[in-house]
Amino acid sequence: MRHSAVASKLTLSVSQLNEYVRKLFQLDPMLGRIDLTGEIANLKFHQSGMLFFTMRDEQAAIACMMPAQEAAALSTEPFEGMRAVVSGSVGLYARAGRYQFYANSLRPQGMGVLYERLLALKAQLETEGLFQEARKRPIPGLINTVGVVSSPTGAVIHDILNVSLRRDPQARIRLCPARVQGIGAAEEIARAIRTLEAMEDVDVIIVARGGGSLEDLWAFNEERVVRAVTSCSKPVVSAVGHETDVTLCDLAADLRVPTPSAAAECVVAVRAQTEQRLEALREELRAAAESRVSKAEAALGMLTARLGAQRPDRRVAREQERLARLEGLLRDAARRRLQEGRSRLEMKRRELQLLSPYGALSRGYAIVTAGEAVVQSAASLAEGETIALRFKDGVRDARVIGKGEGTDDKRDAGRRKPRKETTQRGETL
Predict the structure, then answer these.
(1) Distance (Å, rounded) from C-alpha 395 to C-alpha 78?
(2) pLDDT tens, 261-315?
(3) β-strand 34-45 against 83-93: which pairing, if any?
């Protein structure tokens, strides 16, 4: 009798199958500890602190997840396109039935990757002019309050406080705490800068951190931090790392110092020196004010004198006196002109009278007219002709009755008397 072997079938739910496969992944020793190399993509920071991303190469990709605790401990914040080495294990996310990589650490795949990114970002920001010396501002000489962006724990804030209070026991330091390393550090630093910028009493801001590797200081090379520094309306002092460490934050700040202690020395003035300087300025201001007041008083006195001389009532009185004087002169001149005119008129009248034929009438002469014409010759009158005789007191008519004895011939004959000639003896010839 032949027996046919029939394999029995196993019936499982989806959750049972996924759980079974998950345990298989856990039991495989090779999948428990793996260093996975590749390029980071689809990077997402969850609000819970967990980190989600994809590791990929030229041919394949795998989803990755890092718990919040391990993500917070990262010294270098990952970025899109970063080549990295991720340590962890392979597992199955049973709820979704998705195979993924559970990462517990992440580091750049060689320093060259971070350095290349640093150079690329530096070149971009330089092109925008964010590192130019011309845009940097001087640090104020008198500070009301110093804002500090740094970790609330560690030596940095203590060094700043010790130096500041030694130089000025009344110095005011306002700390805005922020993580200076790891995931989210760049965002906290930028937010702290903006917070201190909004405080009216803060005059200058110090961004400080102790020394470390390129990965440790990477948050200060992030673009968001650089832009927060350059857009800040208040001067920013960068004291990140040691003297040999240079971050993009150093290049963007208004002043870069090698250590946090040096930052406090540059910002907080020695109180005694400040008081001496204030006293000197006070004395200089007092002397300048006295000089200004003295000059102003002299100018006021001069203006008062000029105003007194130019008083409207006095000026009106002077002008009235001048007007009265001019009126007198005008009257005198008019009187003289009138008198002179009268004198000239009288002279002309007399001259006219002498030249006028009527003037001779007063001396016994008469004017003989025949009709409208003046008779100028006796010969022109005929016997029996009527004539008019004008005397000084009137006119009388007359008639020519004949020639009188005083004819022109007789007068001429009488005038032609013989001329007496004398001889040497005196005898009349």
Answers:
(1) 150
(2) 999 999 988 777 777 778 888 889 999 999 999 999 888 888 888 777 777 777 7
(3) antiparallel
Q: Give the tokens for residue 229.
A: 């520094």
Helix boundaries (H) for 10-110: 14-27, 68-72
- How far is the C-alpha of 293 from the C-alpha of 349, rounded, in Å? 78
pTM above 0.70, yes or no: no
Q: Which residue has the tokens 């003896």?
A: 425
How many other CB atoms sit within 10 Å of the CB of residue 267? 27
Q: Which tokens belong to 74?
A: 């990262």
- Nearest of 182, 265, 162, 254 to residue 222 by alpha carbon: 182
Contacts of 149 (CB under 8 A, 6+ apart): 176, 178, 189, 192, 193, 196, 205, 206, 207, 208
φ, ψ dihedrals at 259, nearest 5°: -140, 160
Q: Going by C-beta distance under 8 Å and a sequence separation of 6 or more, which residues neighbour residue 64?
A: 36, 52, 53, 54, 55, 86, 88, 100, 101, 102, 103
Q: Is 95 exposed, middle or buried (0-12, 13-18, 19+ CB in 10 A)?
A: exposed
Are 230 and 252 in contact, with CB atoms under 8 Å apart?
yes
Q: Kindly write down the DSSP assignment for every residue of 252-302, as one continuous string.
A: HSSEE-SSHHHHHHHHSPPHHHHHHHHHHHHHHHHHHHHHHHHHHHHHHHH
Q: In this structure, what DSSP letter does residue 419 have?
A: P
Rg (CA), the chain: 66
d(CA 305, CA 309): 6
Instruction: Extract the tokens encoding 392.
Output: 């000084």
CA distance 241 to 60: 39
Integer Cα distance of 247 and 318 in angstroms: 83
Between CA 384 and CA 403 the distance in angstroms is 11
Sheet holding 236-240, edge to edge: 173-177, 145-150, 202-209, 236-240, 255-256
Angle between helices 260-267 and 155-167 (to 10 degrees): 30
Q: Sort 141 into a burial class: Cβ within 10 Å, 0-12 / 13-18 / 19+.
A: exposed
Average of per-residue pLDDT across 157-171 = 90
As a whole number of angstroms, the distance between CA 1 and CA 19 comes to 42
